[in-house]
Amino acid sequence: MRPMRRRNFGMLTVGTAAGLMTTQAQANAQTATPGGGGTVIRDVVMAVHGGAGSIPRGSLTPDREKGFRDGLEQALRAGFELLRQGRSGLDAVEAAVNVLEDNENFNAGKGAVFNTDAEHELDASIMNGKDLKSGAVAGVHNTKNPITLARMVMERSPHVLMAGKGADIFALRNGVAYTTQDYFFTQRRWDALIAAKGTQAATTADIGGTGTVGAVVVTGARDVAAATSTGGLTNKLVGRVGDSPYVGAGTYANNRTVAISCTGTGEVFIRGLAAYDISALMEYARLAVQDAAARVITEKIPALGATGGAIALDPRGNLATPHSTDGLINGYITRRGEVVTRLYNDETPPR
Ligand code: ASP
Predict the structure, then answer these.
(1) Is the distance from CB of 339 to CB of 41 less than 8 angstroms?
(2) Is the CB of 325 under 6 A from ligand 1?
(3) Are the C-beta atoms of 293 and 312 separated by less than 8 Å?
(4) CA distances from 295 to 87, 299, 349 (A)
(5) Edge-to-edge strands of the sheet including 319-320?
(6) Fewest CB within 10 A of the end CB: N or C in the chain?
(7) 34-40 mean pLDDT
(8) pLDDT, tens digit, 9 for 90 and up, residues 189-228
(9) Under a CB-based contact definition with an 8 Å cutoff, are residues 99 and 213 in contact?
(10) HEC string of 38-81?
């Protein structure tokens, strides 16, 4: 296996001294746990993902690879810098997701996929592990950064989930950046829509699109938070809503257990209540994060008929990145500020 790309941004001062590891120890930190459980990476402060899917090595141009890696790295760095300034986990995951929403390589904000009417309908949710507060938006059309709107729903409305026109109006009223639909356009997503329309019936099996984004964090006070943002699936029916704005399915955070952001075929993640199920296995069955996450993502979800992945970070800094797809685009930053980005299938071995 070739080395993953690593960069160092300096040590995060909010981390506990007991948790610090040497660079060599970090290099060795990704280990398979005995007993068939998942893989765990230790001493992580924050992780992001850019969707589940298959990227065989050699299939990306150097420019495209750089776009992905730089996007993940910038997102991690944005969140990490806020933590270093003493800001909250919510601030960190929102900032990280904003970076990915603004990067057209990912299926969220700019670069989102098209629905059957060649529109963009965007979904997002955010959750705070300390008090279980959460906010979400579904099917928004004109909000440049849906994750910021999701947070606003959480903090400035009595509601948890707002949808469609009302959510966009709520954004306008609260000063969230408004944009016309053409802002989200990319040729690549347009070509994918045309290709999808050339195929037969639009089933969830053949309308896929990858690039959903998410972030999870743990602060020095061991508060966790999670956020997910997406354009959904290419050629999805108008009005279709996936798991990403569904707290407990695509996103979950609880200081007692874990922060999670999922990616994959949303319908099945909703039916399987994937994110909450990982948390419940940790809370009630006392499973470690890597075992709980592997059980749900690589066993339960495929048994229900879908594939996907997740990033799951517990309050002690243990990160699991299970996926039943060939790969999971993701990255993480450790307490020492070391960044690792993983794009290719051989960088993210299953389980
Ligand atoms: N989970 C997203 C949805 O179903 C899509 C994805 O993660 O690729 O909307």
Answers:
(1) no
(2) no
(3) yes
(4) 33, 5, 16
(5) 251-254, 258-264, 308-313, 319-320
(6) N
(7) 60
(8) 999 999 999 864 444 333 345 789 999 999 999 999 999 9
(9) no
(10) CEEECCEEEEEEEEECCCCCCCCCHHHHHHHHHHHHHHHHHHHH
Distance (Å, rounded) from C-alpha 314 to C-alpha 83? 17
* Residues ≥6 apart with Cβ < 8 Å to 348: 321, 323, 327, 328, 330, 342
Instruction: CATH number of the domain at 207, please.
Output: 3.60.20.30
Cα(108) to centroid(ligand 1), Å: 10
> Ligand 1 in contact with 109 (CB < 6 A)?
no
Q: Which of 108, 112, 89 is closest to 97 using CA atoms?
A: 108
d(CA 79, CA 86) in angstroms, rounded, equals: 11
Average pLDDT, the chain: 88
Element holding 262 (H helix, E strand): strand 258-264
**C-beta atoms surrounding 64 within 10 Å:** 14
Q: Is 212 a catalytic residue?
A: yes
Cα maximum dimension of the chain: 57
pLDDT tier at 12, thresholds 50, 70, 90 = very low
Give CA angle at 90 (312, 251), nearest 5°: 40
The residue segments making up the domain with residue 108 are: 5-347
Q: How far is the CA of 74 from the centre of ligand 1 (A)?
A: 22
The closest of 237, 279, 244, 281 to 258, measured between CA atoms, is 279
Which listed residue (148, 212, 263, 298) is catalytic?
Answer: 212
For residue 60 the two structure tokens come to: 């990306």
Question: What is the tally of structural domains in the chain?
Answer: 1
- Is there an atom of ligand 1 within 6 Å of 334 CB? no
Q: 311: which 2 tokens?
A: 């990033």
Please, are residues 296 and 321 in contact by the beta-carbon 8 Å criterion? no
